[in-house]
């Protein structure tokens, strides 16, 4: 008799814990894999086009699939001084323009999912709005991206063009101002986040 009571009690406890945990089962958190992710800033200058890669990134996405797939949270952060072109003079000018001594990170924080449409197995077209902060200036930006989401991994791909001057950044110059950088830059990213 005692054994039956014990089993019923344990079963009851298990069911209560299961009911309390159910909302969390659908919300899955994935963290950015820096070694597998790539983010490149591209631009133009009076001499040639240029690219700078981000060597240090972190971020997180929280997906909820309770009824249909939704993004609950999305944050991305780049260490500003990890932007490297392979040319030390260009890197120095870039870091100076971004005032990286004072503003250590470039970040994006999701504020709204405007549209999310399934395009096939585990694939989605997503339009998000969020706060993009560069050199201490925050602007609301809309970004379109492709998302591939499985139980173990999320892959985000997209690009976004904007003007540096919108963020109060003077486009870098070199060789006493004889080489000037175009105001518009494009960020291209392929972000891998693992569970």
TrEMBL record:
Source species, domain of life: Bacteria
UniProt entry keywords in alphabetical sequence: Signal
Span of the signal peptide: 1-27
One Pfam family hit: YceI
SMART domains the record matches: YceI
Keyword Signal attached: yes
Name the UniProt record assigns to this protein: Polyisoprenoid-binding protein YceI
Organism field: Gelidibacter sediminis
């Amino acid at each position: 008799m005692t054994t039956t009571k014990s089993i019923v009690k344990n079963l009851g406890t298990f069911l209560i814990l299961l009911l309390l945990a159910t909302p969390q089962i659908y919300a899955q958190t994935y963290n950015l894999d820096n070694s597998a992710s790539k983010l490149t800033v591209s631009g133009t200058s009076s001499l040639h086009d240029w690219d700078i890669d981000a060597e240090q990134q972190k971020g997180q996405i929280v997906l909820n699939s309770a009824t249909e797939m939704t993004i609950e949270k999305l944050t991305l952060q780049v260490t500003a001084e990890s932007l490297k072109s392979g040319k030390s003079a260009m890197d120095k000018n870039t870091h100076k323009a971004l005032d990286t001594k004072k503003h250590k990170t470039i970040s994006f924080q999701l504020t709204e999912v405007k549209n999310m449409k399934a395009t096939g197995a585990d694939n989605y077209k997503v339009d998000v709005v969020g706060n993009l902060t560069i050199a201490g200036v925050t602007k609301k930006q809309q970004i379109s991206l492709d998302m591939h989401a499985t139980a173990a991994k999320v892959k985000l791909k997209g690009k976004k063009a904007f003007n540096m001057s919108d963020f109060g950044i003077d486009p870098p110059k070199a060789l006493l101002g004889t080489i000037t950088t175009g105001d518009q830059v494009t960020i291209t990213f392929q972000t891998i986040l693992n569970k």
